[in-house]
Amino acid sequence: MIIDSHQHFWTYHPTTHAWIDSSMSAIARDFKPTDLEKVYEKTEIHGCVAVQASQTEQESIMLLHYAQQYDIIKGVVGWLDLCANDLKDKLEHYSQNDFFKGLRHIVQHEEDDFFMLRDDFQQGISQLKKFDLTYDILIYPKQFEAANELTQNFSDQYFVLDHLGKPQYNLPIDVHWAEQIERLADQPKVYCKLSGIFTEIQTKPWQIDQITPYLDHVVRCFGMDRLLFGSDWPVCLLASNFNDHLDLLKSYFSLSDQKDIEKVFSANCIHFYDL
Questions:
Q1: What pTM did the predictor assign?
Q2: Which fold has domain 2-273?
C-alpha cells in the first residue's frame, strides 16, 4: 500500500493560480479527483493527501468537499490566513472536519525571506498544536534560515518540508542547502517530503546521478522515520509522467529493509497527518 502525501486539485483560474506562468501551459487547466483516480488505477497507491495550491479559503472548502466525496482523499492540507485576527475561530470551525489535517502558506512567493518570523505569522503557527494540525513548509533555499528559526521556536509543532526545500539538482550539492537540511532535521518533529523533484531539475533529460546525492543527504539527516513519498501531481507532469517519480523512489529504496520502505511510502504519512 502506498499513500501519496502531496498532490493538488484545482479549478484553474489565471488569477488565483498566478504561479502557473506561460511556461506551465500543460497544467493550466482543471484537475479533479476523477483525473487522479485514473492515474492511481495503474499503481499501488491507496490514497492521498490533497494540498492547497491557491491562497484562498474557498479552495480549502473545495478540497474538504472532495474528501467527503472521493475515497482516495484521506486528508486535506488547506490554507487559512495565519496572520488574521479571526484565525482561532476559523481553526475551531474547520478542525471539526476529520479530513482537515493541516495548513500551508506559499512562503516561497513572499518577497520577505523572513516572512515566517513575522509576529503575526508566528502567532498563527502557535495556535495549530491546540487543534492537532500540522504545517507544510514550502520555501526556496534562501528562506531556510527563517524555517529553521521557526521550527526551533515551536519545537512541539509538527512541520514537514515540501519538495526537499527545492535544491538545484542540476548543480553539485550546495553547502548552504546541505547545512540547512541538517539543522532542520535536528528538530525531531520536522519531516521531509520526497516530492517535486523532477520539476526542479532545469536540465533535460534528467539523470539519476543528479538526484541520488540529494536523496542520500536527506536520508542521512532525517532517517527513514521522517521521510514521506509525495508525487506533487499534477505539477510533476511539467517534467515527467506520474510513474517516473514513483519508479525513481521505488528503485532508490529497493534495497532497503521492507519495514523502512513501508514507512517512506505509507506509514510515515499516516502517522504525520493522523490519517
A1: 0.96
A2: TIM Barrel (3.20.20)
